[in-house]
Amino acid sequence: MVLRSPVGLSLAALGLLVVLIYFLRRQPRPVHVPALFLWERLPPGQPRWLSRLFPQLDLLLLLQLAAVAALAVGAADPARVGLRPGGATLLVLDASASMSAQGVADQTRQAAQAVVQATGGPWAVISWAQPTEVLVPLTPEPDQVRAALDRYRPGLAARPPLSHALTLLPHQWARIVIITDRPPSQLPPRAELILIPSPNEFSLTAFAVRPQPDGSGFQLLVRVRNHTDQYQDLPLVVQAGETRFFQALLLPPRAEETLFLPYYGPLGEGLVAELAREDGFPWDNRRYFAPGLVGCRVRWLGQQQPYLWAALVASGGAELALEPPWDLTVAVGTSLEEPPPGPALLVEAGTPEAPLGPPQPPGEWSAQADPLLGGVDVSDWVVPHVRPVELPEGAQVALLAGELPAVARWESAAGKRVLLTFPIHGSSLPASTGFPLLVRNVLQWLLPWRTGAQYVVGESVALPPGAEVLTPAGPASGVWVPEAPGLYEVRRGGRRELVAVNLPPADQVEEGGALPLATPTLSEPVRRQDPVWGWFAGLALALLLAEGLLAQRRG
Amino acid sequence: MRPEELLPPATMAALAKRRLTFRQLPAGQPGGHPSPRAGLSLEFSDHRPYQPGDDFRQIDWAVYARQRRLVTKVYTQELEAPLYLLLDTSASMGYGQPAKFPLALRLAAALAFVALRGLDRVGLQPFAERLGEGLPPGRGRGHLGRVLSLLGELSPRGETSFAPVSDWAAGGHQPGLAVVISDFLAPTGVEEALTALRRARHRVWALQVLSPQELSPPWRGLLRLVDLETGRSRVVPLGRQALLAYRARLAEHNRRLAEFCSSQGIPHRLLASPRRPAEIVLELVARR
User: Which of A176, A204, A410, B244 is the most buried (most CB within 10 A)?
Assistant: First the structure.
């Protein structure tokens, strides 16, 4: 231990003052005895001065002197000295929705504190969520880092690609420590991962509604995941307005199951699906669904596809229109001579800007980070074939089947385009949960507001002119960033509509862009001093408190 | 203190079959204690040759039939011995943690219970700087209630003095067992009082009650020692040496008391630790 400000020791001179005052003002303490004659003419003790002085010292005086000594040492700013591994360390704290689970944030702070304690710094801290925030830039002061850790609060939003977070603080980091409950799909070289166990036991990972192809009612598509190693008996409740439907589920360990439930009720007030059991992360036990906005006029070209039509009606409130104006063109299994005006969904349909080749056997699925595949699990998709395509410049491929694009999107002069290079007929898509989600994502990208009834927390929503959404904080218009999941009411031109906001899907593909390389910097161990004056100040206070209590007890 | 606190049922159960017995009783009225002298009672002791003047009713005719000589049956003499409880009620008896006075009260109650169960008479005499209002010897269940009631009303006050004990001894009470319960922390008068009791032909027990704080004071530092009884005070820098000197002086005081009691044939017991009164009385009864 070293004293960083030895001048503070001069406060010890107060001890002399305390002793002086004690001897000037000391009063013998009265004590009752049953027989005073036994105490009279006691023989003197040993002649040593210390033996004579000791009986005159009082515990109160000793406590006061000890408090003064502790105060003097504390004023000298004592510090513990230790050698720690040095080098710039970046702490990336996951602040996405799953980190809001019970106790996870505290464990994250403790893990970060342990890193700070064990290293010599300097450090920087990033809160990795949507939006990413620099809690503290590079600093050699551990106290600043601790204060930044206190400000760390996970939200309910998704997390952006790790590369986006790392570009906020470009530096030659010696260490990058990522503290999260879900490892990212890509790690920078030499990055360290600290995994926090999640108390999440089960979650409702997807909830969608689509009409029955025969028009008799709807189908609820629910996907539930069991994160534990035990069977889970879960009550599923679907609420539509005042009406509630119950369904008991038994999930095997570590399993995810998809259910198709018939539903014949109204959709007007939106639907809420909920697992009616508490676990460590209750936010993902509930999902919302709002019906699509009415009035989306669809121009249909090519073959009929009832499953696609049903998904369009459920997600976008589509209605077939033979005459213009059209909001959306859907082409299935055909080849268009001219580019369609406005947004278009092309299902195995070629256009002059993206002509299709002959069918080829599909390869392995390879999903990319793309909004079209948010919450979509493609692992169980089976398609008869895919067609090669010449994509225009600037096109984004969301899904590859082997080497061939399977799902792609681009924007042309005529409008936005989404292309599926495989047929829906004869594929397993209509029976998968991912299909209505894919259609919803497609419509949300093609028609950002007209059909965008489903949103996720933390992602901005551009409200159309004249529309305002009612939030707990008051009405919002323009660009609105939902902060919590739920069903929100939108008022536009005297009409009342609903939008659903859900948590981002946990398995969202998030990586995109190149990760910056962390160049390991070989650095010498840092001689670090941890201030401990607080301990001495606390000791002085405790001693004074004990002295006060003792004095009060003696009266 | 309430009677049930002075003499709990557990104490009564432990002492129910005990009796006070004495080997050297002064001459007195017939009673329940066996005397070394021969006398009239139901307890057969021995035969002796007939002497003129002996009671014809005491001649053992069975022996005469066998041996053709006259012998007289001799019986054990049984005398009565009242129990006098002389209880110190000075202020110093209220000292200590736990205080000495409750122990002294419970001890007196337990001794009274044992004596009354043995059909002895029991008297109670509190004393401090003067004799307090006492209870004359009596027997029976009702008398036990009166003893407990008086004990419950007592409180420690006044100065310690053994002159009242000497006065009581000169009062002409029937000889019996006089039990003095006190801390005996008086500079003078203790030996005179015990001698006066012996001269009045009483058997005497001296039960000295001290508290742990008296034996080993817990204080240190500069102290103003105030006498509980007189209010006189003295400033003492109390350190290790002074404490050792105090302990030596107290030990000397107790040793002198014990030696004096031994020379007078007075059983002396120093009760220095908190103990159950029933245990102490059982020990006393067993030793006598």
Answer: A176
Q: What is the model's pLDDT at position A517?
A: 45
pLDDT in tens, A161-210: 888 888 888 877 888 899 998 888 778 777 888 999 888 888 888 888 87
* Chain B residue at shortest CA distance from A58: B221
pLDDT beneath 50, residues of chain A: 46-47, 451-452, 509-513, 516-522
Say which DSSP state A242 is in: T
- Interface contact flag, A36 B227, Cβ < 8 Å: yes
Dihedral sign from CA coordinates of B101, B104, B110, B112: negative
In percent, the amount of chain B with pLDDT more than 70 equals 88
Assembly ipTM: 0.76
SS3 A473: coil
> In this structure, are residues B278 and B14 in contact, taking their beta carbons and an 8 Å threshold?
yes
Interface of B with A in 245-264 (CB under 8 A): 245-246, 249-250, 253
Cα angle B122, B126, B127; round to 5: 140
Which pLDDT value is given to residue B81? 76
Nearest-Cα residue of chain B relative to residue A30:
B224
Asked if A55 lies within 8 A of B234 by C-beta distance, the reply is: no
What DSSP element (H or E) covers A537? helix A533-554
Note the Cα B86 to chain centre separation in Å.
7
pLDDT score recorded for residue A47: 46
Q: Is B241 on the interface with A (CB under 8 A)?
A: yes
Count of Cβ atoms closer than 10 Å to residue A503 Cβ: 27
B242 Cβ under 8 Å from any chain A Cβ: yes
Asked whether B205 and B115 are in contact (CB, 8 A), the reply is no
**Placement of tokens 């799902």 in the chain:** A407
pLDDT value of residue A43: 63
Nearest to B10 by CA among B274, B282, B269: B282
Burial class of residue A410 (count of CB atoms within 10 Å of its CB; 0-12, 13-18, 19+): middle
Residue with tokens 């009616």: A276
d(C-alpha A151, C-alpha A145), whole Å: 10
